[in-house]
Design brief:
homodimer; alpha/beta; Rossmann fold; 16 helices; Ser/Thr_Dehydratase (chains A, B); TrpB-like_PALP (chains A, B); pyridoxal phosphate binding (chains A, B); Ser/Thr_deHydtase_PyrdxlP-BS (chains A, B); lyase (chains A, B)
Chain lengths: 399, 399
């Protein structure tokens, strides 16, 4: 491959932003948040142009982080800490226990700041800096705060992180370490989101709340591109995704659609399984009631702090993607997560976040019921490292 | 590149083991530990044969973990959790503070189990399984225990981890999670090492103590190969390495020698800087006294648990490599580490282990003194994630 060809591959093909509900278009070269109709905007690319260089073969020369997918990401010099390209581990011993011969764990805990949140924040902070933002603010249920604080630090920007007062201590500590301003509220992430919305104009904050700005989902969609690349151009049959805000699930489905439009996959899609906690399961409740949007889940409580999102903004997108992919939604208890975390650790050497452990429980259920066939290729997403949940695991493993 | 050529690259060229001191040779197809003269054995390869396929260009097709360097690693189906290929972050903001334009952080915290120890254990457990071991035992100052426990779990083998009673709680918890047997002793890693040595024969343990088996250093040397690959075939001018047992430093120097023998680099070498804690600095003391071996360091104490190695077995190798590379050795205080950890986090978004933060202190010292020129390419090794040192950082960041 000649050097000029290689250079050409690194340019973005971003055209515009489009409302995910009403289809209204927005200028991507300006700061944009929600559509006037109140729904999230999604980034649109010239995929015909992108397809010229977006090939398994050309990707081999690219940087070993998510910015390797430059054609289908917003441009600009990336704010990068080496996010993405996480291991896809063939979990043979766990697979034997679950009854699946082709079970894989995508270990997102090996991202900077220890979670998949790094992907979204790398993209969001990159764009925010380019668009002239000075101070970034976001609510968080846990890991997103640390990721925003880290990328803001790397970009030399101020960050304000608003979190529930009972967020795990590792999440508070990391935000302080990265020099962010931490605001603790007695409430849930939904209350924290309101706080950001109410104060951002007066304080001059750029609101990085997930789906309220259009680029975090772009960073997260690279999980889908990576599966395609790591499975050598194929997609798995089933994906289990721990679903709080659900943006990772939305992002992956967007990636698969883009891959199809570029001619890299056909119409086949992985069946998407949204995994939630019994103590906060708005998507599962809506799914079981055959609804197209979710109700606010009252008294949300679970040790899987990332799943404690009682009113996800992307509810309609998530539910529609579960339907379209012939997927499903499953709720599991905290106790089941703790047991499954121990199983995953002792069989595969992966210390997962409780959110990741939840997918193991769900896999047992759906393999046991026959919903998954034993030969199917199945991916469990461990969205974060277990080391940030030391308090929870300590109790579980000493018991 | 044709398919057969690709397959050929994945075979090991391991020939034998050789004593690092007296040169005596040993059969690599048998379980081996120390030489009869008491010194560590090192793996030797047919590097002429390895050189045929070991090229920057052919490496592009390889798995994205350390097993991509198959020609110069022991063979066998690897026990892998996706170790290696960690980010090399250009630390521009920290570089401006230190006065170095080409300052990089190699972030080993993004390895499985959150530290560079994963590299050594992936190689050691792979070999131990192949050689028929049933139960693996090792002393640890902190992160090595978790790494051994994780790889043993992935391999379906038993593990016994012997650690000082005051090892950080995250290290105890992870070993329990991975299903290992944990033995806590009132003492230091040297006492734990004695415990393993005294009990291994009776208990039937395979001793995985660093340098007492020849393959952990093989896994760790891949840090040197990665620098060569990430700098596109060049080596940096200076490497700062937090030195407890010092096996990472020994391994990298071994990698550079192998690269030269394969014709991939010339005689030039990075100047190696061993960074230790004031409270446990046997190498620094020996270096400053121009000695070729180190004395046992009494009353070893530091928050950087990985540096709490009062009598490293590889002392002579480390000191000889510092000399040969025209490097040096620097000791820093715990308080300096904590300050530097905050600087690294707030300028670069990297929450390091105190061991990694120690290299920032040392870089300030040696850039300030003129020992490093402002244009030189300098790499700081962050050997582990800061999330496993929550207790230490929490206090530091709240102060």
């Amino acid at each position: 491959m000649s050097q000029p060809a290689r250079v050409a591959t690194t340019s973005s093909n971003l055209i515009e932003l489009e409302c995910s509900a009403c289809g209204k278009k927005y200028d991507a070269s300006q700061e944009q948040h929600l559509c006037t109709c109140g729904k999230p905007l999604l980034a649109r690319y010239d995929l015909k142009r992108a397809a010229r260089t977006f090939l398994l073969e050309t990707l081999k020369d690219r940087p070993r982080n998510l910015w390797r997918y430059a054609e289908v990401l917003p441009g600009d010099p990336p704010v990068s800490l080496g996010e993405g390209m996480t291991p896809l581990v063939h979990a043979k011993r766990l697979g034997a226990s679950v009854g699946l011969g082709n079970l894989y764990v995508k270990d997102e805990g090996l991202n900077p700041t220890g979670s998949f949140k790094a992907r979204g924040m790398s993209a969001a902070v990159t764009r925010a800096r380019q668009l002239g933002a000075k101070a970034l603010a976001a609510p968080t249920a846990g890991n997103a705060g640390g990721a925003l604080a880290a990328y803001a630090a790397a970009a030399g920007m101020a960050a304000v992180i608003v979190m529930p007062a009972d967020t795990p201590s590792a999440n508070v500590m990391e935000c302080q370490a990265f020099g962010a301003k931490v605001v603790k509220l007695n409430g849930l992430i939904s209350d924290c989101g309101k706080f950001v919305a109410e104060n951002k104009d007066r304080e001059g904050w750029y609101d990085v709340s997930t789906l309220k700005e259009p680029y975090r989902v772009e960073g997260k969609k690279t999980m889908g591109y990576e599966l395609w690349e790591q499975f050598a151009g194929k997609l798995p049959h089933v994906i289990f995704y721990p679903t709080g805000g659900g943006v990772g699930l939305i992002g992956m489905c967007k990636a698969f659609d883009e891959l199809e439009q570029m001619g890299r996959v056909g119409a086949e899609r992985p069946r998407m399984v949204a995994v939630q906690a019994e103590g906060c399961a708005p998507i599962v409740k809506a799914w079981e009631a055959h609804q197209s949007s979710a109700q606010f889940f009252p008294n949300a409580a679970t040790i899987a702090s990332g799943l404690r999102v009682p009113g996800p903004l992307g509810d309609q997108l998530i539910l529609s993607m579960l339907r379209q992919s012939r997927g499903t939604a499953v709720a599991v208890t905290d106790n089941e997560m703790l047991h499954a975390g121990r199983e995953l650790a002792s069989l595969e050497g992966i210390l997962a976040a409780p959110e990741g452990a939840a997918t193991v429980v769900a896999a047992h259920i759906l393999a046991g019921s026959g919903w998954i066939k034993p030969h199917e290729t199945v991916v469990l997403f461990n969205t974060g490292t277990g080391y940030k949940y030391s308090e929870a695991w300590q109790k579980a493993f000493e018991a």
